[in-house]
Design brief:
alpha/beta, 7 helices, about 240 residues, Rossmann fold
């Protein structure tokens, strides 16, 4: 069965940190969701690749993820080349998601910036019949960029209400004890002196406040969003 949504991120734990609440919400609503981690995280300062693999498996179970795969690209060395595009495109064609979620267009980690460009290009390449011909062409309808913890965007294109799913997101993040226990920063999360788990909660509360709910996750799209019925618009102006 094809996936409804596929999160493609550079490292194990990136998806949980930036869009774990949205993934939990999608699975709770009955959608089939997958995660593809591009690297094994072998260059990480804390823990090991083997430990992170075990932690990723536990986190996927918490989020009720249907498929989790790892492409084994070099950590701290992701590149957007014809070879890597074909590799990611082959996964997209095999899993056939309607929605793809990936990193923000800007980021601190070079792998994050490289991944978002690689994923966008691979989504296009996946629709070309002569690339990875062992699977039929497939091009996802929508690409979302998870911009949690990035404050260099004027406003998110939209914010997902994860109030009912935030604790699930946090449990998934806590699976990565080798990375986050005792930490005060990670990935795109800048330190402010608080424990990392508190930073995650406070940031989610910040995004939730933008849409008048308890917790939220922000996303950016390059395309303008469509509204069929203006009367269905939510979030009070005044």
């Amino acid at each position: 069965m094809p996936l409804d949504a596929l999160a493609i991120f550079a490292h194990r734990d990136d998806a949980e940190l930036t869009c774990g609440g949205t993934l939990a919400k999608l699975t709770r609503l009955g959608h089939k969701v997958g995660i593809v981690d591009l690297t094994q995280g072998e260059m990480g300062t804390r823990g090991s690749a083997a430990m992170r693999a075990e932690e990723a498996s536990h986190a996927a179970a918490v989020l009720d993820i249907a498929v989790r795969e790892n492409l084994g690209l070099p950590d701290a060395g992701i590149t957007n080349t014809p070879e890597t595009r074909a590799l990611v495109a082959n996964v997209i064609r095999r899993l056939r998601p309607r929605l793809v979620i990936t990193h923000a267009p800007r980021g601190r980690h070079p792998d994050h910036k490289a991944t978002q460009a690689l994923v966008r290009d691979a989504c296009f390449v996946a629709g070309l019949a002569k690339v990875a011909p062992e699977h039929p062409p497939h091009r996802p309808l929508k690409i979302l960029h998870a911009i949690a913890f990035r404050e260099d965007y004027a406003k998110p294109t939209f914010v997902v209400d994860i109030s009912d799913d935030f604790e699930t997101k946090l449990r998934a993040i806590r699976c990565y004890g080798s990375q986050f226990d005792g930490a005060t920063q990670a990935g795109e999360i800048y330190p402010n002196g608080e424990p990392l788990y508190d930073l995650v909660r406070h940031q989610a509360a910040h995004y939730g406040a933008l849409i008048r709910c308890r917790y939220g996750e922000p996303f950016f799209t390059f395309e303008t969003m469509k509204v069929d019925d203006p009367m269905s618009l939510d979030v009070a102006t005044l």
